[in-house]
Amino acid sequence: MTADIDGIALAAEGLCKRFGGNTAVDRVSIAFAKGRLHSILGPNGAGKTTLFNLLTRDLLLDSGTIRLGTTDISRLTPDRVARMGVARSYQISSVYPDMSVRENVWIAAYRARGGNPFAFWRQATSFPEAGQWADTCLSRLGLSEIADVSVKELSYGDQRLLELSVTLACAPQIILLDEPTAGLSRKEAERVKRVIMSLKGEFSIIMIEHNVGIVMDLSDSITVMNRGVVVAQGSPDEIRGNRDVQEAYFGS
Amino acid sequence: MLWLVSAQLVNGIAIGMIYALMSFGLSIIKGLLNIPNFAHGALYALGAYICYSAVSMGLPFALGLLAAFAGAALAGWALQRFAIQPASKSGYLAQLVTLFGAALVIEQMLLIGWGTIGLSYSPPPLLRGAVNLGFTVVPKYIAFASVFSALVIVSVWLLIERTKFGAYLRAGIERPDTTRALGINVDLLLGVGMMMGAGLAGLAGGLALPLVGATSTMGGDMLGIAFVVLVIGGLGSLYGSVAAGVLVGVVQSLTAIAAPAASTAIIYAAMIGILLFRPQGLFGER
Amino acid sequence: MTEESLAASQAIPSVKAGRRTFALLKAFAAIAAVCVLPLVMPINIATEILIYGMFAMATNLLIGTAGLFSFGQAAFFGVGGYAAGYFLAHGWTSLPLVLFMAFASGGLLAAMIGGLIIRRLGIYFMMLTFAFNQLVYYVIYSWHSVTGGEDGLAGIRRPVLDLPLIGSFSFDDNRSLYGLVCVLFLLSIGVLARLVQSPFGLVLAAARQNSRRTISLGYHVPALQLAAYVIAGAVSGVAGALFGMLYRIMPIDSVHWAASAYVVFMVVIGGQRSMLGPVIGAAVFIWLQGLFSLAWTRWPLLLGLFVIIIMTYLPQGLVGLASQRWMRAIKRGARV
Q1: B225: Cβ–Cβ under 8 A, 6 or more apart, which residues?
Q2: Does residue B244 lie in a domain region?
Q3: Residue A77 sits at the chain C interface (C-beta within 8 Å)
Q4: Are C127 and B221 in contact (CB < 8 Å)?
Q5: Interval B181-213: pLDDT, tens
């Protein structure tokens, strides 16, 4: 991939992460273009989620640098990186079970709309911008009708959609999606796919996904990882034609 | 001076070994049940009282120690069976609160059974007196307590690292879900782990009896120190707590030479230092 | 119903007005309750219930809202009580001064301890709260010249409120002290209830449920938790000061680890998911303590057993149980 420096949303160089004696991510260099959807493929244990955790600074780097636009974020805290416009969804649903659907989204919307988290004395309801933005994000994913339902009563599929909605409510520039269709029925996966399709172009999206069909249909470019290293990189067609990847994924 | 320092050093090792027994037990329970055992101090006091009763009944001190271990282990089993396990259905906080409840119950039972006046006991005749090593004099009981604790720790280590039961125990600590999936009786495992941890606390109490006597409040003080030892050692490692226990005991005893009043303060100061500069603990991984 | 729930339909004015009426009703009910309390029990007991109610509410900000399991809150209660008590025993009896000293010393100690431990998680955090409680106990126990050591800090006088033009008002009478405690109790319940519903409270509750997610949404979670820790410490300090004023002595037992356990008992007996729960828990606890201590000198044993039984059979606490029954009754009513 040869995008010029202006077109790069997020770039990593020489990322390394070891757990004990096991190198989970080994000198990975990767660049994500602005406004594109870039997928990361690879078998379990390839280091994809670890790479995500490094990019969002959830994990400390052993070595390497990460650049967000032109800013070096390799030493920043994860909440700082989030405030700079990087939002993510998790592989395991990370929603707040003791809250309603709207409250879940509101938490993200409040921060995204510049609300002060130390507002001890303000009523949560007296900040209409956050409520309105939360409602916008809910309706975009078709969750308005269940906005007041407690998250505990939600189906797994709806929880995944809620998580996407929360991620959107961060008003990010870059979205990292960790297996957005994992554990979903075909119909639900189709719905999530349509949602992601509708987000394309508006955001820079980086996606880990095992469903090769969805990856091929949605992606502008694909990186294949195995055992912590990048194995192949290219457009969906190039990846489809790559012999190594074929053996691993298409079984031919 | 050398004489004093080496005497205190030996003293510190003995006390440190008792700390090590305490925090080793805490580590095992923490690893298996994922709880800080707030009743650990009460179990320690229970061990001291049981040992006292056994020797007053004319039993040899060795049997007193055995009784301290067995009695506390039994109490640990009862704790797991009748408090922690039933409360686990009610959530994590419920388990913690029952541990505090149990600590109160045990401490009050000690007062009911043995009265409010502190008890003291001198070591058996065989362990009285001191050995002259030339450069220092070591009280026999101090030497015995150190060596005995070390032997106990080594045998528990062998049990955990070298036996099939130990393999289950380690599996239970490292991968509780997998262990359950393998069809191992986890409840039994937890019960036995709790017994071991509690037993070590009781044994520590029995060993401490000739040194500090038995009082109903000895548990709370000891529990604070045992937590400090775990923080200094680092929660990640089962054996870090053993090393940290000895270290804390030695540092405390050596401080007592210069400033006797500061010997307890120094270990809290050490804890604050660790929190500031090495929050994962001396032997913990980040 | 959780206290931290966001208004479902914030746009509809009638709902908003209804909420305001409801809030007013609640306020009146609270005032009425504290007025009735001394009529049905000895005034000392009523005062103590409100003091421990304050302490338990502050503790529940950590346990129930923020999910920070602190088992060392007696340190802040005690330090506030000793600081205010020291001034009161040495002739500085100005009410604003001693209340400020209690508030500031509780908050400052919480800021120092919290700064060291707030980033430590789970079991680590709990052990540290306990250990720091022991440290504070040890310092107070050893610092005999200032704190009275084992005997407690005696000779605490009641404070005096000097009002310009009106004159000075003393709290020597137990009824006037009860009035003061009422005002501070109602103030804390109002402030804490509002706090829990504020954005701050909501984000704290979010971090309780999933700290990592809350960080990835862009919140600096440890700073928010530290703020909660300091607020809880400061309010606990004021409660401690009132306790010292009530009995004119600050006993060493008030900083003992058992006192930290007791306040957690109050929270869980009452229930963590409401503002009222811990207060009811405190009332039940104080009442039981009185009952048991009359019956048997070994009353803590009965308390311990009581808590174990409650935790096994009533995990949601008394308020949780009542609201469950209530909801069930409503559902049954709706079906008919």
Answers
A1: B19, B22, B248, B267
A2: yes
A3: yes
A4: no
A5: 677 777 788 888 899 999 999 999 999 999 989
- CA-based nearest distance A138→chain C, Å: 14
How many angstroms separate the CA atoms of A168 and A175, rounded?
8
Q: How far is C174 from chain B, CA to nearest CA, in Å?
A: 32
Please state, as a whole number, how many other Cβ atoms lie within 10 Å of the Cβ of residue A152: 11
What ipTM was assigned to the predicted interfaces of this complex? Answer: 0.91
Q: Which stretch of B200-204, B228-232, C64-68, C164-168 has the lowest confidence by average pLDDT?
A: C164-168
Percent of chain C with pLDDT over 90: 65
Residues B227, C307: C-beta atoms closer than 8 Å: no
Chains in contact with C via at least 3 Cβ–Cβ pairs below 8 Å: A, B
Q: Is A160 on the interface with C (CB under 8 A)?
A: no
Of C195, C217, C227, the CB nearest to A107: C217
Residue A245, pLDDT > 50, answer: yes
Global pTM value = 0.91
Contacts of B103 in chain C (CB under 8 A): 261, 304
CATH number at residue C49: 1.10.3470
Q: How far apart are CA C322 and CA C324, in angstroms?
A: 5
CB C268 within 8 A of CB B68: no
User: Which DSSP category does C120 fall into?
Assistant: S
Residues 103-122 of A with CB under 8 A from C: 103, 106-108, 110-112, 115-122
Domain that holds residue C177: 3-335
Q: Is B230's pLDDT higher than 50?
A: yes
CATH label of the domain that carries residue B154: 1.10.3470
Q: Is B282 part of a structural domain of the chain?
A: no
Q: Is C6's CB within 8 Å of A96's CB?
A: no
- Phi/psi of residue B130, nearest 5 degrees: -140, 160
Res. C17 pLDDT band, cuts 50 70 90? low
Residue C11 is predicted with a pLDDT of 39
CATH level 2 (architecture), domain A1-85+172-252: 3-Layer(aba) Sandwich (3.40)
Report the pLDDT value the prediction gives residue C137, as an integer from 0 to 100: 94
> Which class for B58: exposed (0-12), middle (13-18), buried (19 or more C-beta within 10 A)?
exposed
Give the gap in angstroms from C-alpha C142 to the nearest C-alpha of chain A.
38
Question: Domain span at residue B136?
Answer: 2-277
Domain parsing of chain A, residue ranges = 1-85+172-252, 96-171
Q: Domain total for chain C? A: 1
Contact present, B202 and B43 (Cβ < 8 Å): yes
